[in-house]
From TrEMBL:
SMART domains, per the entry: PKS_ER (SM00829)
Cofactor: Zn(2+)
A GO term, aspect molecular function: alcohol dehydrogenase (NAD+) activity
Transmembrane segments: none
Organism, scientific name: Streptomyces pseudovenezuelae
Top-level taxon of the source organism: Bacteria
Record protein name field: alcohol dehydrogenase
InterPro entries: ADH-like_C, ADH-like_N, ADH_Zn_CS, ER, GroES-like_sf, NAD(P)-bd_dom_sf
Family (UniProt): Belongs to the zinc-containing alcohol dehydrogenase family.
Amino acid sequence: MKAVRLTEWGREPALAELERPIPRGAEVLVRVEAAGLCQSDVHVIDAAEGALPYRPPFTLGHEVAGHVAALGPDAEGTAAGERVVVYGPWGCGNCTRCAAGRDNYCDRRGDLGWHGAGLGRDGGMTDYLLVPSARHLVPIGDLPATQAAPLSDAGLTSYHALSGVRHALGEGSVALVIGVGGLGHLAVQLVRATTPSRVLAVDIREEAVDLALRSGAHLGVPMGADTAKVLRAETGGVGVDAVLDFVGNEATFALAVDLLRPGGELAVVGSGGGRLTVRKPGFLPAGFRLSLPFWGTRPELAEVIALARAGSLHVETEQFALSAAPEAFGRLRQGRVRGRAVLLPG
Ligand code: FEH
Ligand code: ZN
Ligand code: ZN
């Protein structure tokens, strides 16, 4: 089978020919129908040796959907042919967090040498993916795999970030989404689908602002000198109740702090490397709360899939053949992917 492999640090991933794996014990073999690309894949590819706890070679791809091809002798909870999306954070499987389907916050994540599919373990940019347990599979029914795959990371990460600030998004509230790419355009839809909040959106790219409006934002504003003024005016001068920042750099932190109401919430999802000074007395709004959410939980993935199957979520995708992975990564690096890039194996 073909696979997009990270063979060594500092080297671009390459297509390789591998033997199809055989599921043992509780493992499940998934025939991959779609695998999404993520900015984190680029961070992994660009990582210096020793920066991440992973040991190449391994196959990339942590946003995966397809159908069950084979089961190990101890596998339970699924059946051959079932259409599934793969819950990508794979923890130790034994701590209380993993037992609750919160592998994203596994107590042993620092000792494992991996974070999940395509993140130190063989992932889904290939024809077949070996999943450690059926507990990592969520049924998708007739949802297209090209929709389901991005929902397992872009959708789930946005949903989990929103879950932490949802209490601030009641009647009359305003949410701000900064960065409207693969995650941000789903965040706009999720805020609209699960809260009564008005949604404002900001991005440096005009086409991303358009995507925000198509996704249901009440107002889309290009990042510029008067962005804060325009957005504050939209809130009647009081500011926003929550910010979901999918960029995470100094400019977006400054915008968020400038616009947040007292008691406001900032969820930082983007790995832009920005720094925020937290000090008392200081300049943050009274009652300011910060979260740094990571990916999401398996129960939340099932909720995201249910929203998509109910028609409340649509992923904007650009599709590439698996063999065109280098082109897809090039477009992602240049910021020239509209929505989410998805690879289609064989
Ligand atoms: C995965 C691994 C490490 C950092 C960030 C990520 C995200 O892409 C998961 O949503
Ligand atoms: Zn990711
Ligand atoms: Zn664990």
